[in-house]
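Handout, tutorial session.
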Amino acid sequence: MAQIIDVGSSTATTGSQTVSIPILAPAQNLILAEFGLATVASGSVQLDTTIGFQTTLGVPSVIFTLYRDGQPIFNVGASGLSISAIQPITISYLDRSVPEGYHAYSLGVANNSLNILLNTASVTGPVTYSGISIG
């Protein structure tokens, strides 16, 4: 039977339209949230996040990336809707066979559009990120 080993979370904001953080170019990946978790040998970590983003110009393409210890483990792409439309993104990911120890988990976002100047977006909230270590 699985056992909960540790729980971690990071909440920048729980409401929509409560922040306005520009999503930058791919080389300037923006970390939105982070936390640490203890794991056991061959354990798993269930990660869940909700992010709201808004198109500010054009039709941006953004990439949300989940990291363990600074290394990408999962990413999801999203395209903007009409100007000023807010789009909520929900991500759930099971990080399997995590090495035993204490790990830093973070959530990043970058603008992956071909023309960044004509396709812009911002994080508007909510921004929540949590994890449960299971052994």
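The second record follows below. Compare its token runs with those of the first.
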Amino acid sequence: MAKLNLELLLLISVCTTCLVVQPSSAQLRQNYYSKICPNVESIVRNAVTKKFQQTFVTVPGTLRLFFHDCFVNGCDASVIVASTANNKAEKDNSDNLSLAGDGFDTVIKAKAAVDAVTQCRNKVSCADILTMATRDVISLAGGPSYAVELGRLDGLVSTAASVNGKLPQPSFNLNQLNSLFAANGLSQTDMIALSAAHTLGFSHCNRFSNRIYDFGRRKGAIDPSLNKTYATQLQGMCPRNVDPNVAINMDPITPRTFDNIYFRNLQQRMGLFTSDQILADDSRSRPTVDTWAANSNAFNTAFIAAITRLGRVGVKTNTSQGNIRRDCSVFN
């Protein structure tokens, strides 16, 4: 009987504890702002379209900004925060210095458009605006449109040091890529799909010059995994004495269109980075490359699934973790 009473007391104690546990954070969901700011998606889309009409760099700049944001401290717009005298922010880490200013400007202008509506002012996070803008630039570039999950808060921390080791490098092999993506809950299939964002935008010569000059420290050598004709073209655009300001299209065939040509380029050994070409060269990833090179619909479906999962990485939905910034570049 004493044992039974003790067990009963323990059970009551556990249940009482259950009653005072804080509820779990709300989950992201589609149409999150339907009652808060009903027209937010069209407001953001109109602002992004206007920016896109001014410069195509809006597309790769915004897409890359989203990726760099989510992989460091989660999708919380911390990459947009400006440095201060007391804090060097994420955007000033060397891995982020090449982020196009048009990506930041797209979010800032979309935020201004949202806040111009009285009902919406300071009700929509910068993180969600970046997520919507990313979907919109993909569509504007000819890629698929998809429903976005919303409900993120903006992060409360942004430090340059937190970027170290969080972003994939041009020299990465498949194991390194898989490991980095797995750390964010993303599969090899997700990684290959998201790598296809390199179908848009540009890179600077110093990011891949090691493949076209003195590869492996052998004078005059070219990376044997690189198409020789393509390598010669790259040498023509990127002098041996690398000018870091010279930019080259990531996709030499359709650089302004979001499509599956990226995978066909890999089949022709025309991946600009080692981390691109390895996807076609490694037997573990080659079947996926071949499938998506032949089937754009299959690629689009996989990309939507992957970027949706990316948008869930490290999100803040609890007010102890984040808030809605009045200015995307400054903490409240």
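Points raised in discussion: DSSP finds 13 helices and four strands in the chain.
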